[in-house]
């Protein structure tokens, strides 16, 4: 199942390495989040959302 973050990355042609660097997390951590294998902490979620110009609610709102 494709995650919202995965769809946004594909649609915008973003590189996961770029997002990970800007969000100050490891590429491995981001990869797990993108694949839906891990849920980010609030702080990490906010950082990722800012990098992709979305809100945390838009990316993970269906989890709450």
Can you count the beta strands? Answer: 0
Q: Mean pLDDT, as a whole number?
A: 93
Proportion in β-strands: under 5%
The CATH architecture: Orthogonal Bundle
General form:
globular
N- and C-termini, Cα separation: 18 Å
According to CATH, the fold-level topology is 434 Repressor (Amino-terminal Domain)
CATH homologous group name: lambda repressor-like DNA-binding domains
Low-pLDDT regions? none
Report Rg.
Answer: 10 Å
State the share of residues found in helices, binned by percent. 55-70%
Just give the CATH class: Mainly Alpha
Q: How many helices does DSSP assign?
A: 5
Structural class: mainly alpha
What is the total number of structural domains? 1
Order of helices and strands: HHHHH
Instruction: Give a quick account of the main beta sheet: strands, pairing sense, barrel closure.
Output: none
